[in-house]
Amino acid sequence: QVQLQESGPGLVKPSETLSLTCTVSGGSIRNYYWSWIRQPPGKGLEWIGYIYYSGSTNYNPSLKSRVTISVDTSKNQFSLKLSSVTAADTAVYFCAREIFRAGGTTVDYFDYWGQGTLVTVSS
Amino acid sequence: SYELTQPPSVSVSPGQTASITCSGDKLGNKYACWYQQKPGQSPVLVIFQDSRRPSGIPERFSGSNSGNTATLTISGTQAMDEADYYCQAWDSSTVVFGGGTRLTVL
Asked: Is B33–A105 a contact, with Cβ atoms under 8 angstroms apart?
């Protein structure tokens, strides 16, 4: 059974960089896509971006200028950096495994999720 | 940018059938999936590729997708099905989520 666990600071100051790591256990990070998704308190889900185990990435255009996702296959981990944060970036951040197959009709869904971690942006 | 629209809330009596819709331009030409999220928990995939159920998801959950609307149907709704439900699709190289529907079982 694949399990994902987010880790990182729960409090970040405005204008600084939010950094989170997701550790994957119970399976290899290889041959899959791995995503970050966030949920502001009381609101809906927002996809941040994904990384393939080889290192190729795809980001939400609305966040692209501030987001970097990286992967460390030796540690079975992938990470998120979000720069220049504001209070609007306060959210529960989830990591998830993304099943993605491009084709005539692209297959895309998230089958395993971490428990989520609340990150608050405040001075 | 592509948008998926869901009703904010749906109510259903125990044992009855609940239907939650998700609307988007030509959504039927894409694959839709659905997630269930209970308070304080992470989302759980309940339907993928329009109508397929992951292992462990009860048969009372079913899905369809045609035209501009995908529908999640819960037959014989139980109290434990009370949750927020989100649809999701892929468009123009991005993941799109619907705004979510709160299902109340009363």
From this structure: no
